[in-house]
C-alpha cells in the first residue's frame, strides 16, 4: 500500500527530475537561427540524360553487344537537388560532387528566396566535394570548426533540404570517428564522421555543426534499406574539406600524396608472428616498382605503424593520412620489419590521375576536347605499372555536356577501346575518334582504378 508520504516523495522526484533532464539537453534555437542564412538549396538539371534500354532479362548481355539489341534511346532533362553552404561573402559555395555531377545547369537558392545560376569552380570525386561560385556579395558565411576535436557522443546539428523540404534542421550525436568507406573505385581517402542525425536525400552537401555553430562536417552518405534515414549517416570531416576547398579554389583540382603500396589489416595471428604486442598498423602486401615507398626502401611484409608522426591503428588509416599530405613533402615512416622497429624517410609522390573534372568554371572554349569532349594524354609509366595496363590514353579532363561526360567518363580513366577499335596510344586515339560515326551508340572500354569497364558512347555531330 502506497502511503501519503511515499506519494509526496514520488511527486517531488518527478518535479525535480523533469527540469533536471531538460537542463541536460542542448538548446539549438540560437545555433539554427544564426546559421540558416548561410545554408543554401541546390537544384541541378542534366538536359540530355539518356533513357530507355533492355528489359531485365537481357541485362547479363555484355555491353559490347548490348547496343545491337537496345531500342533507340531518348534524351530528356533530369532534375535533382541537394544542399550546400556559403564559405565566403563573395559567393563561394561548398556542396557534394555527386550533387552537381553531370549537371548542365546549377541553381543556388538562398533562404530569402534569391536564386543564382552557379559556376562549377572545381570538383573532387575522391572526397565527393565540389566548389561553386554565385555572383553575389555581402553574404553570410559559415565558420569552419576543427573536426579533429570531435568526440563520440558529442551533439551535432544538420541543416539542409531533405526531400526538397527547404532548410530543415535535425540533431543527434557523433556515433563514431574515422570510418573507412571505399568509393566505387575502391579508393579510401576520407575518414568519415558517423552520426545518428536524420540525413535523407536532399541533405547531401549540407553542413554538420557542432554546438559552437561551427561546421565540422559535410553530410555525404547514408546507409539505408528504405531510401530514408535509419540513423546511420556519414559526413566528410572539415579537416579534409577545408584543404580540398582551398585547392579547388586555387587551382581547380586536388593534389594528394601517394606511396605506391598495397596494404591490408593486421590480425591477431599476424601481429604475434611479426613481433607486435597487439594488432595495429598497415601491413604492406605489395610495393610498386619505382614508387616513393620503393625508393625509400619499404618492403613487402613491413608493418607501417606511424606516418609523419600520426598513428596508424588500422590499414584504412594510412590512405587518409597519406592523401592529406602534399606531394613533395619529406616525412618519417615508422614500421616493424621482422620484429624490429625501423624508421625510414621518404618523399611523398603525387597520386596519379588526380585531376578535377571541372576546372576554372563551367565555360569551356568551343572545340576543346574534340568530338568526345575529352582532353587526353599518353599514360605515364608509373600509372601503367600501378594499374597493370600496357596501352591506351589517359583522360586528363572531361568537358561537361559532351559525349565523354554523358558516357560517365572521369579524369584518371584509361581508354583502351573506342567502337570496335583498340586504342594503343595518343596518335591512335586521334585517328579512331576522327573515324567514329555520328548518332550511333558505340561501345567504349576503359580502365578505372585498374578495373576494366564497358559502356556506350554516342557522338552527336
TrEMBL record:
UniProt record, GO biological process: proteolysis
Domain PDZ: 244-316, 361-426
EC supergroup of this enzyme: hydrolase
Protein's UniProt keywords contain Hydrolase: yes
Signal sequence, start to end: 1-22
Catalytic residues (positions): 98, 128, 204
InterPro entries according to UniProt: PDZ, PDZ_sf, Pept_S1C_Do, Peptidase_S1_PA, Peptidase_S1C
EC number: 3.4.21.107
Cellular localization per UniProt: Periplasm
Keywords, ordered alphabetically: Hydrolase, Periplasm, Protease, Repeat, Serine protease, Signal, Stress response
Residues holding substrate: 98, 128, 202-204
GO annotation, cellular component aspect: periplasmic space
GO molecular function: serine-type endopeptidase activity
Superkingdom of source: Bacteria
Reaction(s) catalysed by this chain's protein: Acts on substrates that are at least partially unfolded. The cleavage site P1 residue is normally between a pair of hydrophobic residues, such as Val-|-Val
Pfam families: PDZ_2, Trypsin_2
Role according to the record: Might be efficient in the degradation of transiently denatured and unfolded proteins which accumulate in the periplasm following stress conditions.
Family (UniProt): Belongs to the peptidase S1C family.
Protein name: Probable periplasmic serine endoprotease DegP-like
Species in which this protein is naturally found: Microbulbifer thermotolerans
